[in-house]
Specification:
Oligomer: single chain
Strand content: 5-15%
CATH topology: TIM Barrel
CATH superfamily: Glycoside hydrolase, family 3, N-terminal domain
Structural class: alpha/beta
Largest sheet: 5 strands, parallel
Radius of gyration: 19 Å
Number of domains: 1
Strand order of the largest sheet: 4-3-2-1-8
Distance between the termini: 24 Å
CATH architecture: Alpha-Beta Barrel
CATH class: Alpha Beta
Number of helices: 15
Length: about 375
């Protein structure tokens, strides 16, 4: 074994020991809290996300940490926060805000954001931020130059790091194969599986250069749909073999590179027998992504406040189902109180095992620990 390999083994052993020690200090309530990544509004006076909040429209958002939010956090110690445009006013404000959120507790919460470039940005779309404007990934894909994708990820990663964000819900690994798709389109690098995989890999490299975590989304591929899971039920009728030749290529080619994979709320009737959205399906999330494809990083479900979920399940039901499916991070449930206490009760009554919770918390802590090292 080389000196470098010896050093890697020692670092891994030290990290595992640190994680084990931290895990042993957490109560069940704290462990369950680590699974949830929420909007700052959900620690404020309203714990239920309205339609305007979900769609990032309407009233102004929370832009600083209040005493009532600190008090709420002590009762509900979540693992992280997701900021949207309504939470981002100016460079000074968001730098102070992310620092305040990070210091709410231990383990420190992670601050995440959807900053893809192009039409999906929370910071670059704010004229008060003097940051480079990155084209949509579709235009970058047309250049067929992976260096352009790496540059996009690096530029975005640099300013995210500067303003206190550790995790970007990007890049989009979906293929742009359906002209009627209302939600992906030019957010995708293109329709070619291998080119999209290479572009996604380069983008991830750019984020990693600036200590920002990456997320491949939306597994197992939202590009070949004609409906939007933000508003309701969406199905993909390809078989698993067909998906392996197309939509899954950008994912499977980058599972050893990405920090996380985000599961979509799309249903796959030709793949799973449970009829559930992928994010709530054990067959898709655990049997396929975790076991067959071998991904051992963080699995984060798409927002549990989207119509595909809220039209069919309560916040408690959806959160419990997502954990049982194999998700590690439960993203922005419509009611954080219902979701949190639903999972907590499911562990206490034996529906979800303590070991299952510990495994997800271990992955989240490993992510947090890797940022600090």
């Amino acid at each position: 074994m080389s000196d470098l390999q010896n050093t890697t083994v020692e670092q891994t052993t030290d990290s595992d020991s640190q994680i084990s020690q931290i895990l042993d200090t957490l109560t069940l309530e704290q462990k369950v809290g680590q699974l949830f990544f929420i909007r700052p509004e959900q620690l404020a006076e309203s714990y239920y996300l309205s339609e305007n909040s979900v769609n990032d429209t309407g009233d102004e958002g929370v832009t600083s940490v209040t005493d009532s939010m600190k008090e709420k956090y002590s009762d509900l110690p979540v693992g992280g926060f997701v900021l949207f445009a309504r939470n981002i006013v100016s460079p000074n404000q968001v730098t102070e805000f992310t620092a305040e959120l990070c210091s709410l507790g231990t383990p420190n919460p992670i601050i995440a954001v959807d900053e893809e470039g192009g039409i999906v940005t929370r910071i670059a779309s704010n004229e008060l931020f003097d940051v480079p404007q990155i084209d949509s990934m579709g235009y970058i894909g047309q250049t067929e130059e992976t260096e352009n994708a790496r540059h996009a990820g690096s530029v975005i990663g640099e300013y995210l790091n500067k303003y206190g964000f550790q995790w970007d819900f990007a890049p989009v690994a979906d293929l742009n194969t359906n002209p009627d798709n209302p939600v992906i389109g030019i957010r995708s690098f293109g329709s070619d599986p291998n080119m999209t995989a290479d572009m996604a890999a380069a983008y991830i490299d750019g984020l990693h250069e600036n200590k920002v975590f990456s997320t491949l989304k939306h597994f197992p591929g939202h590009g070949d749909t004609s409906d939007d899971t933000h508003s309701g039920f969406v199905a993909v009728y390809k078989t698993w073999d067909e998906l392996c030749e197309t939509e899954l290529v950008p994912f499977k080619n980058n599972l050893d590179k990405t920090d996380a994979v985000m599961t979509a709320h799309i249903t796959l009737p030709e793949v799973s027998s449970d009829g559930l959205p992928a994010s709530l399906s054990y067959e898709i999330t655990t049997e396929k992504l975790r076991n067959e494809m071998g991904f051992d990083g963080v699995i984060v479900c798409d927002s549990l406040s989207m119509g595909a979920i809220t039209e069919n399940y309560s916040s408690s039901e959806a959160a419990v189902m997502a954990v049982k499916a194999g998700c590690d991070v439960l993203l922005t449930p419509q009611s954080i109180d219902e979701a949190y206490y639903g999972v907590l009760e499911a562990v206490k009554n034996g529906e979800i095992s303590q070991e299952r919770i510990d495994k997800s918390v271990e992955r989240i802590l490993l992510l947090k620990n890797s940022y600090n090292n």
